[in-house]
Design goal:
The protein is of the alpha/beta class. Helix content is about 40%, strand content about 15%.
């Protein structure tokens, strides 16, 4: 199926939430670039249909289950002999704006898929990548990782958490030859957004991203393999690496600036 530049020729990849939306676009792009791909999704039938159409391999798993994610990574290694790229993409919204109307079920589901799915995903793929000589992990974040999103504050909470995790774990992973980065798209025309909400954007002449545009950014992030990088993806703009502003550091009693804190290997109290 390879018809692209071949950047990922002879590479093996795993994509969560790969049966629709951004994940599907990434599966198709990776296959076009020559990669073997494991499509991981809760919906076994849809994952199998995508795999059959693209020449990928399907694996049904719930990303919020640690053992299930380990099983997916092991399946990729067994099938392809290696794992070079992982796109941890699966995500859900709560569909709730008013915080005191949020159900416990919706709250826990959002955290388990959006946060646990990334943490468990990294835990699962990192050892396999290390055995393969290194690799690249790309996490789907959101503009809600960087700014307030009052429409769904719990979704924003989870995407802020993902951002903090990626930036916090980047150094220890690169020490193992694994680069982790995050792609933060604006509003994307996917099933997660919904047809009604997408129609509101269209009626307001507000441009939406297409999944393929985000997929191209994901492949750029995977190929660049810059640890801790954050890519903002918006319609009509080139892929931009987001630069964080540093926070003010402490000063001593005589008002002298203090350098970097010591690193004792534990969180300071």
């Amino acid at each position: 199926m390879a018809t692209g530049s071949g950047r990922f020729q002879d590479k093996a990849a795993l994509v969560t939430g790969g049966a629709s939306g951004i994940g599907l676009a990434v599966v198709e792009a990776l296959r076009a670039e020559g990669a073997d791909v494991l499509v991981v999704d809760r919906d076994e039938d849809r994952a199998s249909a995508v795999a059959e159409r693209t020449g990928a391999r399907a694996h049904a798993a719930d990303v919020s289950d640690r053992d299930a994610m380990r099983g997916a990574a092991e399946d990729a290694e067994k099938a392809f002999g290696r794992l070079d790229v992982a796109h941890l993409n699966a995500g859900v919204t709560t569909g709730e704006t008013v915080i005191d109307q949020l159900s416990t079920e919706a709250y826990r589901r959002a955290l388990s898929v959006n946060v646990d799915g990334v943490v468990f995903g990294v835990q699962a793929v990192a050892p396999v990548m290390e055995r393969s000589g290194g690799g690249s992990i790309v996490v789907t974040g959101s503009l809600a990782s960087l700014v307030a999103y009052p429409v769904d504050p719990i979704y924003a909470l989870t995407k802020h958490a993902v951002m903090g995790f990626v930036r916090g774990v980047a150094q220890q992973l690169i020490d193992r030859g694994i680069a982790i980065s995050v792609v933060c798209p604006g509003f994307v025309r996917t099933p997660l957004l919904g047809e009604e909400y997408a129609g509101m954007f269209d009626n307001a002449d507000f441009p939406l991203l297409e999944p393929e545009e985000v997929g191209a950014t994901v492949l750029t992030a995977a190929a660049t393999a810059e640890p801790g990088a954050v890519y903002v993806c918006q319609p009509g703009r080139t892929n931009e690496s987001y630069k964080f502003r540093g926070v003010p550091g402490p000063r001593t009693a005589d008002k002298s600036a203090v350098g970097a804190p010591p690193e004792p290997g534990r969180t300071p109290r």
